[in-house]
Design brief:
Elements: E1 2-5, H1 7-12, E2 17-24, H2 32-48, H3 58-70, H4 80-89, H5 99-111, E3 114-119, E4 127-132, E5 140-141, E6 145-146, E7 153-156, E8 161-163, E9 180-187, H6 192-209, E10 216-220
Parallel strand pairs: 1-4
Antiparallel strand pairs: 2-9, 2-10, 3-9, 4-7, 5-6, 7-8
Helix pairs in contact: 2-5, 5-6
GO molecular function: phenylalanine-tRNA ligase activity; RNA binding
InterPro entries: B3/B4_tRNA-bd, Phe-tRNA_synthase-like_B3/B4
Pfam family, one: B3_4
Length: 221
């Protein structure tokens, strides 16, 4: 899989750095040990963050800044990492989907980066391009129906949009039978060390909970 960062993104975020994790995996409907980790992190955040201070986390602050630069209101279309942590701080239970979805959510919460998890076998073509959503561009968010992605950073394959920091697309979503996983980490803060750490954290989670060898990852800018 080749990933191209468009000039549109380079203009609004010249220091962007991303990571692509690719692995063979085995999904499951639920993993208690994984949820123990999620709940422990939620307790830590409730002791250390508020719904306002979480916006200062580096990955979240940078993503919000890029939203504004692209013309999107980050308080109306929250980055997924912010929305997940905010839900924890409000004392609400995170939605439980399946192990792959829950694992990607944990990885996003732990580092504050917006992360997309995809069934790689559903991509069309051999490359993804990170650009900015256009007016009227069709996009079906997972569990959200058609959403307006104008002004949102968006990954596109040869058919169209597959992922934004707010919501990934129904067409390429992970399912119970997903065995070929691609995870994209969006470091709009330009912190390559943290982006690498996030990728390696995902690999460790895949080894523990998805009967995987962790696969491999590469950095793209």
């Amino acid at each position: 899989m080749k990933i191209i960062v468009s000039e549109e993104i380079e203009t609004v975020c010249p220091k962007f750095v991303g990571a692509c994790v690719e692995a063979n995996v085995q999904n499951s409907s639920y993993c208690q040990e994984l949820w123990d980790e999620i709940n422990a992190l939620g307790e830590k955040y409730r002791d250390t963050l508020t719904t306002e201070s979480l916006k200062e986390m580096s990955g979240i602050a940078a993503t919000r800044k890029v939203y504004r630069a692209c013309g999107k209101d980050p308080s109306r279309y929250r980055p997924a990492s912010e929305a997940l942590i905010r839900r924890m701080l409000q004392g609400k239970q995170l939605y439980q989907r399946d192990t792959l979805v829950d694992l990607v959510n944990l990885a996003s919460i732990a580092f504050g980066y917006s992360i997309g998890g995809f069934d790689a076998d559903k991509f069309e073509g051999d490359r993804l391009t990170l650009g900015v959503g256009k007016a009227g561009e069709p996009y079906e968010g997972i569990g959200r129906g058609n959403i307006n992605i104008e002004g949102l950073p968006v990954y596109r394959d040869s058919l169209g949009g597959v992922g934004t920091p707010t919501s990934d697309n129904e067409r390429t979503k992970m399912m119970s039978d997903t065995s070929h996983l691609v995870v994209l980490i969006n470091g709009y803060d330009g912190n390559e060390q943290q982006v690498r750490a996030n990728a390696e954290y995902i690999q460790s989670l895949l080894k523990k909970y998805c009967k995987s060898d962790g696969g491999s990852y590469f950095i793209y800018k």
